[in-house]
Amino acid sequence: MNSYELFIGLRYTRSRQRTRFISFISVMSVAGMALGMMVLITVLSVMNGFQREIRTRILGVASHVQISAGDKTLDGWQEVAAEASRHEQVLAAAPYINAQGLLTYGSAVRGAFIRGILPEQEERVADFARHMRSGRLEALRANEFGIILGGQLARALGVAVGEKVVLVAPQGQVTPAGILPRLKQFTVVGVFNVDHFEYDSGLALVHLEDAQKLFRFGAGVSGVRLKLKDLFRSGVVARDLSRAIAKPVFISDWTMQHANLLRAIQIEKRMMFLIIFLIIAVAAFNIVSSLVMAVKDKQADIAILRTLGASPRSITGIFMIQGTMIGVLGTVLGVVSGVLLALNVDTVVLFIENLFGFKFFAKDVYLISDLPSELQIPDVVITAVASFALSLVATIYPSYRAAKVNPAEALRYE
Fold first, then answer.
1. Read out DSSP for 101-139?
2. What pTM was estimated for this model as a whole?
3. Which one, of 303, 301, 289, 283, lies nearest residue 398 by Cα?
4. pLDDT tens digits, residue range 128-178?
5. What are phi and psi of 72, to 5 degrees?
6. Residue 19 has pLDDT above 60, yes or no
7. Backbone angles phi, psi at 307, to 5 degrees
8. Residue 20 clears pLDDT 60, i.e. is over it
9. What is the domain range of residue 389?
10. Greater confidence, 311 or 349?
11. How far apart, in Å, are the Cα atoms of 14 and each of 322, 326, 406, 413?
């Protein structure tokens, strides 16, 4: 491309149009692209933030990899834990018992998932200690029948630390009078709150030995939970362990256990990207209308350039430069404003909430009450490249029309 083509294209971009409407459409094209990119970058960052928060809260109490015997009892869990710990990715292993039961306190009755744990080992694979609101995880001791409840579950039952609840086990006890439910009184020794409704409203922790006695597991457990160095390699580790462990076991990782939730978030993120990207496409193709009118406005200039020896290719280049500059300006403004908003979205939301006196995400309704944001460079790069590519495509037709202008016709009435 010759230097004069670049010079004229940039001059046309900076100069005022004889028809102000053309300038207005150009400004609206830039504003539309910038606004669309800002929204898209912010939405993608918020979706990344929600995905991170949900993953963090789930993995705060769930395991990276879980080894079980299916519906059977896993005997000799120490051997299984030792074999799993030999893998270079495994940081810690802890046994667990999963069961269901009814918790009663006075007239209040709630169903709960009961998890039997060894506190000293559980702390290495989960973050319960960090989420304790009252009491300590170490307060669970064998044969003392203590229990730690999720915050929502404790509130529903109306109990506090030090009070006693009755746990009704589903395994009945056969007597001459028939099958009677097995009951055991537990003392509440702690309350945790991980800000995840599924766990806060339905999970209760007891000591592993107490769970073995109550649910008749003997010396067995439900399985072994593992914590990894890199949680994103959980699938590879699960496959490796399935070949390394001699016992017939079932191995699952956190992506399998919460597959539907994670898949739903990913699909929603892709659909939001597609929908908002269409808004950017509409703004980008406004460049077409502004350049078509600019070509009409500059017909006399085009004719003079052609008579001075400019080729159709040079004319095409001039108007492509003009349209490209509009796209570059919209892309740069969109990236800068989108990054700034994504990095400060919590502050902006808090300001709006204080200004209008309402909360977007009520804590008693939504799983996450704050608006998290995680800006990822690939999202910004993909958005910027795609938007610029659209603006470049939008310049092709008007530039082609400019190259086809007939100098004689254009100068007839000048």
1. EEEEETTEEEEEEEEEE-HHHHHHH--TGGGEEEE-GGG
2. 0.65
3. 289
4. 878 888 988 889 999 999 999 999 999 999 999 999 999 988 776 655 655
5. -100, 175
6. no
7. -70, -25
8. no
9. 3-56+262-409
10. 349
11. 9, 10, 26, 27
Residues with Cβ within 8 Å of residue 350, at least 6 apart in sequence? none
- The two tokens of residue 28 are 């609206």
Residue found under tokens 């159709």: 312
Mean pLDDT over the full length of the chain: 81
- Answer yes or no: are the C-beta atoms of 236 and 62 closer than 8 Å: no
In-domain check, residue 301? yes
Report helix, strand and coil shares of the chain as percent, to nearest 5.
Answer: 55, 20, 25
pLDDT in tens, 100-117: 999 999 889 999 999 999
pLDDT band at 56 (very low <50, low <70, confident <90, very high): confident
pLDDT attached to residue 263:
77
Beta-ladder partners of 109: 104
Rounded CA separation 269/382 (Å):
14
Identify the CA nearest to 402 among candidates 5, 26, 30, 4. 5
Burial of 320 (0-12, 13-18, 19+ CB in 10 A): buried
- Indicate whether 174 belongs to any domain: yes
Specify the pairing of strand 250-253 against strand 203-207. unpaired
Is 414 a domain residue?
A: no
Query: Is residue 172, in this structure, part of any structural domain at all?
Result: yes
Instruction: Please compute, for residue 32, the number of CA atoms within 13 A of its CA located in the half-sphere on the CB side.
Output: 20
Average pLDDT over residues 48-52: 82
Do residues 218 and 281 both lie within one domain?
Answer: no
Sequence-distant (≥ 6) Cβ neighbours of residue 361 within 8 angstroms:
368, 369, 370, 371
Straight-line distance from the first to the last Cα atom of the chain, in angstroms, rounded to the nearest whole number: 29
Rounded Cα–Cα distance for residues 404 and 76 (Å): 83
Where does a domain end: 200, 235, 257? 257
What CA–CA distance (Å, rounded) separates 146 from 137?
10
